[in-house]
Write a structure and sequence with these properties.
alpha+beta; Butyryl-Coa Dehydrogenase, subunit A, domain 1; Butyryl-CoA Dehydrogenase, subunit A, domain 2; 3 domains; 6-stranded mixed beta sheet; 3-stranded antiparallel beta sheet; 11 strands; globular
Length: about 375
Amino acid sequence: MDFNLDETQQEIKGLAAGVLGREAAQERLEAFEKSGAPYDDVTWKALAQAGLLGIVLPEESGGAGLGAVELAVILREVGLHVAPVPVYASLALAAVPIGAHGTAEQRELLAPLTEGATVLTGAYREVGPAGEVAATARRDGDGYVLDGVKTFVPYAREAARILVPARVEGGGVGVFLVEPGAATITGQPSATSEPLSRVELNGARVGPDALLGGTADGAAWDTLRRSAVAGAVAVSSGVIEGALELTKEYTKTREQFDRALAQFQAVTMQVSDVYIAKRALDVAVWAGVWRLAEGAGDAEELLTIASYNACDPVIRALYTCQHLHGGIGLDVTYPLHRYFAWGKHCGHLLGGAEDRLDALGSLVAQEA
């Protein structure tokens, strides 16, 4: 297995790093956090102008038609720079399933995304285990009536459409394109500046053209679910790398007893533990997204392993980073707090360590 990026992927990484390094600099992040805006529109438009928002979009929508590995490359850079832009919501939760399963008319929603002129999102989570769907859809004339509650939905108010998975009466799980105005949206607390919402679908009515791909065979939901996990673990991978880099630099320059912290063996061992947690997640992320891009049967198992690492070892590693910084690690004027908040956010979205172990155990049992 070769974990090196190919030439195209390296170019995407370099381009994303350049744009986000410029647009998501520390002073810009501080100014954004004081603005009260849902996301940094300037950075969002800069990503669009660089062609990065179209990387995984179909060619007929103005995109490059690339896949899961390239999306992970971009999202990892978003996490590394803790950039407040709706890339994960718009691409992983919405554009990927629309591009893979949408009708020609539904794919028209993607064209404005390449220009940064719209935001899309998806409702991956409900109350309970991650990846479960209790929301329902029943036929009503030529349309559907949706009932249920979705949680942790990013940018629900800002999105042009919310992708809502629901169990269709007499069928399987379908994914519906719902306009925000058709649901009751209530803000939820968020560890980051990203707006999260509870989306209530009590009797929300949608037309027949709202069902993604026109069928409820579960395929669109499988794509959304796997893309949601792959995207979140890629973001987490970037987050822990950013936190590690900050911690390494701090321990090199901060002195105690006339010696740099990095010269103390106990500190070196703790930094090594953070590196090991980062590398373990990296290996699982790249293996998972590569197998996902290949359409391999073990992709979900690998992504579940990655999500466990994002929910447990990486969270503990972030605590270590804070500990090694001392009091400044908790100071909101110092950048480490953003990485900690983003890491916790990804862990919550993925369902937590115990949930991920349960999911992994179920997958292993199915293979037995």
